[in-house]
Design brief:
Blueprint: H1 3-25, H2 31-35, H3 43-50, E1 55-57, E2 63-68, E3 74-80, E4 83-90, H4 103-106
Antiparallel strand pairs: 1-2, 2-3, 3-4
Length: 109
């Protein structure tokens, strides 16, 4: 491999890297982050996983926070007495439009 090919390869890799970072910047919450959210977490703990504060959403009871991506996909959590009781998502997990409540999973022993 000569210097010209290496230089072109490095330039291509740099462009790809910038493109991937730009795409990731548009995504506030990822599927991987969503799977790490569990009932019992505080809002601060959830914010540490997602890396974003999220937006409060009007709710009848408790407190709901939503993390929405530019493509419309989102994750949201319902908090009562300072702890998450449920998480829901739409558009993050492929063809699944809504997930089932994670609170049932956390109660298994």
């Amino acid at each position: 491999m000569n210097y010209t090919n290496r230089r072109g390869g490095l330039l291509g890799a740099a462009i790809l890297s910038v493109t991937l970072v730009a795409c990731a910047a548009d995504q506030i919450v990822t599927p991987d982050e969503y799977t790490r959210l569990m009932p019992g977490m505080t809002l601060v703990q959830v914010q540490q996983v997602v890396g974003d504060q999220g937006q409060p959403v009007q709710a009848i009871a408790g407190q709901v926070h939503r993390w929405q991506n530019q493509d419309g996909s989102f994750a949201q959590g319902t908090f009562l007495a300072g702890r998450a009781v449920d998480f829901d998502q739409e558009g993050l997990m492929g063809s699944v439009s809504k997930s089932k409540s994670k609170s049932k999973k956390s109660r298994r022993r």
